Each structure stands twice: as C-alpha cells, then as structure tokens.
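YM 10:42: DNA recombination protein RecO sequence, as discussed on the call
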Amino acid sequence: MQLSAPAILLAARAHGETAVIARMLTEQHGMVAAYVAGGRGRQLRPVVIPGNIVQAEIRAKSDSQLPFARLELVASRGPWLGEPLAASAINWVTALTASALPERNPYPTLHSALGGLLDAICSADSARQWVEALAVYEALLLRELGYGGQRPAIAGLGQALEILDRQEPLIARYLLADTRADVMGARTLLRQRLERMV
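YM 10:58: structure's back
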C-alpha cells in the first residue's frame, strides 16, 4: 500500500510514548488507520486534531501490516476547539464517522459531506446555520451504510432537533452497537448544548 492524498483526520489514539494511531478519511480509499511517529510530540500535536484536513503520505509493506503515515497540515480546526458548541459538534461527527465506517471502503459522498459540514461548523456565526447540515449528515451516514431512507426535509431549527432525536436510537443501534468507546456520550453533550439554543 502506498498513497498520498488529502484526508480528514477522524481520530488519534495514543500509541507508545510519543506516537499515535490516526484514523483518516480519504475520498478514494475510504477510512485508513496508520501509525504516526511523533504524533504526540510538539510539532505534530497540533496536526493530529480530529477534524483537521491533512495531506497524508501512507505506506505499508503489506496489506496485513499497519501502515506508517507522514502528515502535513492543510487546514486546522484548532481555533474552534475553544468554542464549546463547535468543539462538541466536531468531536461528535469525527468520532461517529471513525467508529461507524469500515476501513478501506471508499465513500466519496460521505467524504464530501463531512468536509462541508466541518466547514459549516467552523465558518457559521451560530449553530442555527449548521444544525440542519448535521441532521442531514447523520441521515446520509445511515443511508450509505444501509440503515436509512431518504434525505430528511428540514424546515428550521426545531425540526432539525426533532430529526436528530429520531436518528439517535438508529445510530446507537446500527452504527455504534459494536463499539467499546462511549461515542454516544459525545452526541449527548452536543444535544444538551443545542437544546440551550431553543
């Protein structure tokens, strides 16, 4: 395996003293996990933030070996991590995507939708401008993995929150049933913060 592609960083788990195992979503190769040497070091720590766009060079000697990756920052979501609502949304969508998608299956529609959603979260003046996109992204993820129907028609914040509430049991049952981590905890925190807007 040898590829060089832009990717959305979805998760970074500590490995050893200074390395991380990064999970990244690429358009053509789907989600790829790779070992990043020095990922917790001073230079790479700001790069391996979930939601960041990176240029990834990924190499492996065989398909059974965990690939090694070199990452270069393209766009950072770091400035929005100080805003509780934006940080919760970024944390939720990246954790959900990392937990739900199988590795090395391309989902170009999801890649594009996730990139657009992250851009909306980081460029909007308030969550009212991106909460509908969040509900649509969750529905798209369910549909792409075979558990959902049509794109929901949303008219306003109230309806978007209702759709988020309706999708929660489907996500917990179908997409996150086999995960060990409490990914739904990130969604609960986000939903509590969104409720304060109403």
